[in-house]
Every structure is written in structure tokens, then in C-alpha cells.
């Protein structure tokens, strides 16, 4: 269990539920696909997982899959959609088979060796975008406990600004649908606390 100071804030960063493109193994990025029945059930399980947490603000990527997940998890609440929470842009590879993805952890051929040459984003750009967006959110005076729904790649890119994502992968494996990353925030600094997994 973690210890929270009076000045500490809490960010819960969640990946959306399973989508049609997830089960069809399609690269999503900035394009979109709807939640599956399983994705809806995942979101409802996540709702139960965090039902005891008192959130004061809610945010989502502008993607439908994220908004739908947040609405299932949080119910009828006011939330803000932010482009800064969007998934990585994969350029002309969006909607194509995941078989075109580089193998994760291969030091000789990475996402940055492929997608940015076809209109996609660099990982560093996604990391900066996510870090700025989430820092701006958590620096708001009345934001003490925030739930934000985003995407696997974007969440991983943000995590890499806080701690070593390779170590995370060794301990937890891939970031699964509706996984929730809990961070503490104080003095412009995020600290990873725990992974909440349905």
C-alpha cells in the first residue's frame, strides 16, 4: 500500500476496452473502431474495480472507443475529450494488419524505424504530448483525483517518461484492455504506484 501526502494528487490512466480492430488484429492509432461486447464487459468490470475511488475530474481521448469506455466506467459524468490523449498516429499503416508491426523489444528494428517514414508519429513525440497533456491536467488546482482514458501505445509512451517501460513489460507483460495505471503527482513529477488489472 502506498502513502499519500496532503499535497499528493492521484492520476488513474486507463486503456480503453477491447475493440473490433483489436480482435481483428488491425492497427488502430488515430482511426477508430467500436467496443466489442467483451470490451463493454471489461469496462463494467473496471467500474467495479475502482468503485471506491472518489474522482473529481474525468478525461478521455477523442476516440470513440475511449469515450465509450469512460462512459461505461464513470456513468453519467461530465468529462473532457482531449486530442493530447490520442493513440500514436501510425500514418498510412492505420487500419492495416498488426502483422506489419515491428516485434516489440527488437533493438534492430523499432516502431520509429518504420511508421514515422509513412506519416506516423515518433515515440518521443507521443511521450512529450502525453506528458504535457497529463501534467497540465494534474496542475489544475481542483484536480486531486483524476481518471483519464487513453490507449495502449500512448499509455506506454507516457509511462516511459516516468519509469523504465522494459522493466514494466518484464513484470506485467503487455498493457491489457481496461488496465489502469495509478500514478501519484507532486511538484510536476509523476511516480508510478500500481497497476490495477481487471
Structure description:
The chain has 198 residues and is of the alpha/beta class. Helix content is 30%, strand content 18%. The protein has a domain at 9-20 and 35-86 and 124-196: Phosphoglycerate mutase-like (Rossmann fold, 3-Layer(aba) Sandwich), CATH 3.40.50. Helix 2 (37-49) packs across helix 3 (64-74) and helix 4 crosses helix 5 (152-159). The longest helix has 16 residues, at 123-138. The model has no long low-confidence stretch (mean pLDDT 95). The active site is at residues 16, 87.
Strand adjacency order, main sheet: 3-2-4-1-5-6
CATH A-level architecture of the domain at 9-20 and 35-86 and 124-196: 3-Layer(aba) Sandwich
- What does the main sheet amount to? 6 strands, mixed
Shape: globular
Q: Give me the CATH superfamily of the domain at 9-20 and 35-86 and 124-196.
A: Phosphoglycerate mutase-like
Tell me the series of helices and strands, N- to C-terminal. EHHEHEHEHHEE
Structural class determined from secondary elements: alpha/beta
N-end to C-end Cα span: 18 Å
Q: How many helical elements?
A: 6
Q: Output the CATH topology of the domain at 9-20 and 35-86 and 124-196.
A: Rossmann fold
Average predicted local confidence, pLDDT: 95
Helical residue percent? 25-40%
Radius of gyration from the CA trace?
16 Å
* Beta content: 15-25%
Q: Spans of 5+ residues with little confidence (pLDDT < 50)?
A: none
The CATH class of the domain at 9-20 and 35-86 and 124-196: Alpha Beta
The total of beta strands comes to 6
Amino acid at each position: 500500500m502506498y502513502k499519500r501526502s496532503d499535497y499528493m494528487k492521484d492520476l488513474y490512466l486507463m486503456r480503453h476496452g477491447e475493440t473490433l480492430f483489436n480482435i481483428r488484429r488491425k492497427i488502430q492509432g488515430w482511426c477508430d473502431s467500436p467496443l466489442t461486447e467483451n470490451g463493454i464487459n471489461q469496462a463494467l468490470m473496471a467500474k467495479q474495480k475502482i468503485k471506491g475511488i472518489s474522482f473529481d475530474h474525468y478525461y478521455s481521448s477523442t476516440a470513440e472507443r475511449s469515450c465509450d469506455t469512460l462512459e461505461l466506467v464513470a456513468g453519467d459524468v461530465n468529462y473532457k475529450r482531449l486530442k493530447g490523449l490520442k493513440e500514436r498516429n501510425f500514418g498510412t499503416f492505420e487500419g492495416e494488419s498488426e502483422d506489419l508491426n515491428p516485434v516489440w523489444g527488437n533493438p534492430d528494428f523499432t516502431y520509429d524505424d518504420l511508421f514515422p517514414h509513412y506519416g506516423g508519429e515518433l515515440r518521443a513525440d507521443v511521450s512529450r504530448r502525453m506528458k504535457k497533456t497529463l501534467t497540465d491536467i494534474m496542475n489544475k488546482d481542483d484536480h486531486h483525483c483524476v481518471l483519464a482514458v487513453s490507449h495502449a501505445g500512448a499509455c506506454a509512451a507516457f509511462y516511459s517518461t516516468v519509469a523504465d517501460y522494459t522493466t514494466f513489460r518484464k513484470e506485467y507483460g503487455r498493457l491489457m484492455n481496461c488496465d489502469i495505471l495509478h500514478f501519484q503527482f507532486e511538484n510536476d513529477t509523476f511516480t508510478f504506484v500500481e497497476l490495477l488489472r481487471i
